[in-house]
Design goal:
Blueprint lengths: L2 E6 L18 H12 L8 E2 L6 H4 L5 H11 L5 H6 L13 H20 L3 E6 L20 H13 L3 E5 L6 H6 L6 E8 L23 E6 L5 H19 L3 E5 L17 H18 L4 E4 L10 H12 L11 H8 L23 H27 L1
Parallel strand pairs: 1-2, 1-3, 3-8, 4-5, 4-7, 5-6, 7-8
Helix pairs in contact: 1-10, 5-6, 8-9, 8-12, 9-10
Length: 390
């Protein structure tokens, strides 16, 4: 029997853990899961356990030598010199025990979501353990060991023969996915992120448009530091609507990093919970407008794991399951359960207060700059339309 939406989850997602002081903390997935269960919005019948990705599946994107290096690193038998060549053992991506198995589970969670959606068992699927968009073919980067979205897209192409629209709303550029499909006209990548002038990984410029047959299928909107809700949403909505109409995908895969929020410690944007209500609404609309409802969503960045991530990711699931009218106070029992573990005061409401941060003095300048970036990003689509009209 078909289920409309499934939630890929296991407590074993917690095994992807670098160390206690590392900003990437998968406790945020459990916090989200618990919040949704507490409000009665996630039922046991909707929960699906992830599987481990096989070596063959990982090798759709990653070099075999790299996969073997990750295995050895997790067993403590990879030399430091070789590890560094693979991006392992760095400050961003330290080595931890059984890192291959932990990473393969995150990839397997995303592949589980893919199979549920593309086999027709569900219209939508959410795997918050995934979204590790910085991983490269033969190198770990930016907290990411294996790139689950890239593997999932290759898997979708090979098993189901579909055209994929990848949408990345993380504050960091979705570089690993972009470069994997940079010459592929059957994968369209769209990343809206903080400009690389100030932020890792330093890429994602407007002029990164693809190459060869893939030219014109890569879109980037690098917004200025201190961008606020209105400007961010205007850029996202205008760009994504035009890109989806241009590409007309068979399936949409969204990466839902939530580190554009004002509270996030690693970025410089000034978004509030408002954008995390709106981001999934448009993705949901596009899924039904172009993809017969086929929508796969994964997690991503998000480093204020207490005040931001659980609310934002819960809102994603609530939109996916058409329960997004929730507002007002967060459940008292959820706050009581987790406040004793949190180093900050947990929010009391689903939404942020209007005075979350002081006024941004360059607001008009930032807004105009972002608007011009959107025009540049969409110029190839609009020029082509003009030619066709002539």
């Amino acid at each position: 029997m078909s289920k409309n939406s499934v939630f890929i989850y296991s407590d074993a997602f917690q095994t992807y853990k670098f160390h206690d002081r590392h900003p990437f903390n998968q406790l945020r997935v459990k916090l989200t899961y618990d919040l949704l269960q507490t409000v009665g919005a996630l039922h046991d019948s909707q929960i699906v356990a992830p599987r481990l990705a096989t070596d063959e599946e990982l090798a759709l994107v990653h070099d075999i030598d790299y996969i073997e290096a990750v295995k050895k690193a997790g067993k403590g038998i990879l030399s430091e010199e070789i590890a560094i060549n693979y991006g392992l053992g760095t400050e961003d991506t330290p080595i931890f025990p059984n890192m291959h198995e932990a990473s393969a589970l995150l990839v397997g969670g995303t592949l589980t979501a893919v199979d549920y959606v593309l086999s027709g068992k569900a219209e939508h699927a959410l795997s918050l353990g995934g979204g590790l968009h910085h991983g490269f073919r033969g190198k770990a980067s930016g907290f990411c060991i294996y790139n689950d979205s890239s593997v999932a897209i290759k898997y979708m192409q090979e098993k189901y023969g579909v055209r994929v629209l990848y949408v990345d709303t993380d504050a960091h550029h979705g570089d690993g996915v972009q470069w994997t499909f940079y010459d592929d006209p059957n994968v369209c990548t769209f990343s809206i992120h903080e400009t690389g002038r100030y932020l890792f990984p330093g890429t994602g410029n407007v002029n990164e448009r693809g190459q060869g047959k893939g030219y014109g299928y890569s879109f980037n909107i690098p917004v200025d530091a201190f961008t606020e809700d209105e400007s961010w949403l205007a850029a996202y909505k205008e760009a994504l609507m035009e890109i989806a109409d241009f590409f007309r995908p068979d399936v949409i895969l969204t990466q839902n990093g939530v580190d554009a929020h004002y509270y996030d410690p690693l970025t410089h944007l000034c978004a509030t919970m408002r954008i995390y209500r709106e981001i999934p609404k448009l993705a949901h609309q596009i899924a039904h407008q172009y993809c017969n409802g086929r929508w796969i969503a994964v997690g991503g960045g998000g480093y204020d794991i207490w005040r931001v991530v659980p609310r934002a990711w819960a809102l994603l699931w609530l939109e996916m399951t058409e329960q997004s009218d929730i507002s007002g106070p967060l459940p008292k029992e959820w706050i009581a359960r987790w406040q004793q573990h949190a180093p900050v005061s947990l929010p009391l409401e689903w939404d942020d207060p209007d005075d979350l941060y002081p006024p941004i003095p360059r607001k008009a300048e930032i807004t105009e700059k972002n608007a011009q970036t959107v025009i540049k990003a969409l110029q190839p689509i609009r020029s082509n339309k003009q030619r066709l009209n002539l």
